[in-house]
Design brief:
By secondary structure, this protein is an all-alpha fold. It contains 27 helices and no strands.
């Protein structure tokens, strides 16, 4: 059954594969900064050491937080700016435009060094951030709008797999450089230059996919929408399943137009049944960011050093293993569990597991602090804490990693989906920016208490939130209006029936015309 489903929807999987190369960039960019700044040659070249050659922790923390956080600042504005462009020119071409913008930023970061100082890296990170932020907002909307509801959770969940793959690649590139390139500008030019590889794959790949049928329908281009929908489902445009799905899409769009006729942005946010969706979108990402995962993601080398993995290569290797565990755990969840466990239960189990493991790590770090003198092998307590972090990322990957994006993609109606995804993405980047700016100092100043803080947020905030939100598993995008009270269930059924009759009438007329032409 799963094989048939994958084969039937192979074009949708291909679209997701291409579009989500932009999400590999998202993961890669968030993981690469902390590792590059932790390299000894980078610190010496850009003056992050004391005159006697010893480490200047304060300055290194400041530059590290800047290199990571200016990307998030650019991404915040990119996510907000993506909505009007995506609505105007479509999902496909807006993604292409933002990929080009990202590439300009990647080139600036790569050419830094010599007379071109940290300013080039900062400027490049901001410009790349604009592209990444917009891609992170448009890509889930595009994929979600093209997916049949039976596999939407699995396909939109690819988002987090691609993030995890991007992060993992960044860890291993940093590890390879720490082992094989001790000196020279390659220490940062290779990691920053590699960003152009996924960007190129995505740019050329976008030329092989089609525009979102839901976006085309919202622009009144119904014939193109039906053809694209039929192409993606690998069915004939006259197939009853295509007509039925198109009727549901048109019914939803027509209802939204009627409800919002003559009203603008304010109504998109505050219209009936809409405001609560925006609240959920903001809060779900606030909790995700403050749950601790991205602090570990961005500063994995520093986090592993703090629990006893001393030396750049040791901490980068531990980070690389963490990246592998995250990819495998995320892939297993997305392909086998996301559409069976449901959204609520997955989020609840995930937050409880993460919170308990963070409490254990905090307690171990308090009772068994790592040795002050570096050792060749990390002590047993440090290995135990690393194991807990690997278990922790398994729980993260079965809930709070992939599901916020899946959930937010699920809950918004067609007309406001680009605003919803842009708001969610901007919130994610804003909280990302704050967290990435303060994490290096928190790791230095709080020690074991940082893990206790994250544990409390996981259990007290995230688990409670998971119990309060509505379940969206197995519901079509158009059914969300009924769940959130924008339209009654009876009204929706009547609208779908009316659209089906209208389409049936069009098909009958077309068939009659063809018959007359054949007779003539």
């Amino acid at each position: 059954m799963i094989k048939d489903s994958i084969f039937q929807n192979i074009r949708v999987y291909w679209l997701a594969f291409i579009v989500y190369w932009g999400i590999v960039l998202f993961g890669y960019d968030t993981g690469i900064g902390g590792g590059v700044v932790s390299q000894a040659y980078f610190k010496r070249h850009f003056g992050l050491v004391n005159p006697d050659g010893s480490a200047n922790t304060k300055k290194a923390n400041e530059v590290s937080s800047n290199v990571v956080s200016v990307l998030q600042a650019g991404a915040f504005f990119g996510a907000l700016g993506s909505a009007p462009l995506s609505a105007a020119i479509g999902r496909r071409w807006s993604l292409f435009t933002f990929t080009v913008i990202f590439s300009v930023g990647a080139i600036l970061q790569t050419v830094a060094g010599g007379s071109r100082g940290l300013g080039y890296i900062y400027a490049g990170r901001v410009i790349a951030g604009l592209g990444i932020g917009a891609i992170s907002a448009v890509a889930p909307a595009y994929v979600s709008e093209c997916c049949p509801k039976e596999v939407r959770g699995r396909i939109t969940g690819l988002f987090q797999i691609m993030v995890a793959i991007g992060v993992m690649i960044s860890y291993f590139i940093n590890l390879g450089i720490s082992l094989h390139i001790k000196e020279g500008a390659g220490v940062w030019r290779i990691p920053f230059g590699f960003q152009l590889v996924p960007a190129g794959i995505m740019a050329f790949g976008l030329l092989t996919v089609r525009e979102s049928p839901r976006w085309l329908a919202s622009k009144g281009r119904i014939d193109s929408a039906i053809n694209n929908l039929a192409y993606m489902r690998r069915l004939s445009p006259d197939d009853e399943r295509i007509r039925s799905e198109m009727a549901e899409i048109e019914a939803a769009i027509e209802e939204e137009r009627e409800a919002r006729k003559g009203l603008g942005l304010r109504e998109a946010f505050f219209g009936k049944g809409n405001f609560i969706r925006f609240v959920i979108a903001v809060v779900i990402f606030l909790l995700q960011q403050w749950g601790g995962q991205n602090s570990v993601n961005y500063y994995a080398p520093q986090i592993f050093q703090s629990i006893g993995y001393t030396g750049t290569s040791n901490s980068l290797l531990a980070s690389g293993i963490y990246g592998i565990v995250k990819v495998v755990a995320t892939a297993l969840f997305v392909f086998f569990l996301v559409d069976s466990l449901g959204r609520k239960l997955s989020l609840f189990i995930s937050s409880m597991g993460m919170g308990i493991l963070f409490f254990i790590i905090g307690a171990l770090l308090k009772t068994h602090p790592p040795p002050t003198v570096p050792t060749a092998q990390p002590p047993p307590a440090s290995k135990a804490m690393a194991a807990m972090l690997y278990l922790y990322v398994c729980f993260y990957s079965m809930g709070w990693g992939p599901l916020p994006w899946v959930y937010v993609s699920d809950i918004f109606p067609t007309r406001t989906r680009h605003y919803g995804l842009a708001t969610a993405s901007a919130s994610q980047w804003l909280f990302n920016f704050v967290l990435s700016k303060v994490t290096p100092d928190m790791v230095t100043d709080l020690g074991y208490k940082i893990f206790l803080m994250f544990a409390t947020i996981n259990i007290g905030g995230m688990a409670t939130f998971a119990l309060l939100i509505p379940e969206t598993k197995g519901r079509s995008l158009e059914e969300m209006d009924v769940i959130f009270g924008s339209v009654s269930a009876d009204q929706r059924r009547a609208d779908i029936a009316r659209q089906e009759r209208a389409l049936e009438h069009e098909v009958n007329e077309t068939t009659s015309e063809r018959s007359i032409e054949n007779k003539v």
